[in-house]
Design brief:
Elements lengths: L1 E5 L5 E7 L2 E8 L5 H15 L9 E5 L5 H18 L3 E4 L1 H6 L8 E7 L4 E10 L2 E12 H11 L3 E4 L3 H8 L5 E3 L2 H4 L3 H7 L1 H6 L17 H9 L1 H5 L16
Parallel strand pairs: 1-4, 4-5, 6-9, 9-10
Antiparallel strand pairs: 1-2, 2-3, 6-7, 7-8
């Protein structure tokens, strides 16, 4: 049994899978915060699927990019469960999970996650037979510049992810650029489980103590803080004495 947690956006999604069979998934965008709904959703899903927490073999969680708060809540919950149950923890890129929403297409897939201020987090994928392959690692770019890049390629491309709201007005009726069906646009924990197969097979287990979100860019709070304290940072003097922690053995 494998549990997946997806909280990289306003969508809260959890899924449980037994071997290759998806037992259930709860995917909601009801306006509640992840702190209000994530744990109740996990409990409800496991109850309905008749799965005991002790039967879980591992937990898969989205590690970003995406909402800073959402990622922290989802990852914090996954880490706590993995630690308490003493089971493996796996992190999967939000963009990899989104790409797996599309079961197969001859088009390239461009995953786009809203990065605020007219920017998106993006990555490109293609299918090699039945295997989804990454052809460009995640990057952050202004939505208009991304559209210009993809138009220049002259290839058929399908977009998935909540960044579509920034892409759609720029694409309009472009003959080679398509928006995925609304049911495929949002992140889903079930797709995250499919994307996690390679991580699980490779034994890429994350430590609950060390796992951190992959934001790609700094938060707005960090940028504003640095701007506010720019003069202090410019005048910062490097210390002449370095203090390190010392561990004493009893």
């Amino acid at each position: 049994m494998w549990l997946a947690i997806e909280t990289s956006s306003l969508v809260s999604s959890v899924a449980v899978m037994k071997e290759e069979h998806l037992l259930g998934e709860i995917t909601m965008q009801a306006g509640l915060t992840h702190s209000e709904q994530l744990v109740p959703h996990i409990d409800a899903l496991l109850t309905m699927a008749q799965v005991n927490k002790r039967d879980l073999k591992g937990i898969v969680v989205t590690k970003g990019p995406g909402s800073f708060t959402g990622l922290r809540i989802g990852m914090g919950t996954a880490k706590a469960m993995a630690y308490a149950l003493q089971i493996p923890l796996y992190g999967v890129s939000t963009l990899d999970g989104l790409a797996h929403n599309i079961p197969y297409t001859t088009h390239q897939i461009c995953t786009v996650v809203d990065a605020q201020k007219k920017h998106v987090y993006a990555a490109l994928y293609t299918y090699d037979r039945s295997t989804l392959v990454s052809i460009e690692a995640p990057f952050v770019i202004e939505a208009s510049h991304l559209v210009e890049r993809l138009e220049a390629q002259g290839k058929e491309i399908i977009f998935v992810g909540d960044g579509i709201k920034r892409i759609a007005p720029l694409v309009k009726a472009h003959p080679l650029l398509y928006m995925a069906n609304p049911i495929y646009q949002i992140p889903k924990a079930g797709s995250l489980l499919v994307a996690a197969r390679s991580e699980i097979a490779a034994g890429n287990i994350e430590s609950p103590m060390d796992m951190v979100p992959q934001y790609i860019r700094r938060s707005e709070a960090e940028v504003l803080w640095e701007e506010k304290h720019k003069d202090e940072l410019d005048n910062l003097v490097e210390p002449t004495v370095t203090v390190v922690d010392t561990v004493y053995k009893l």
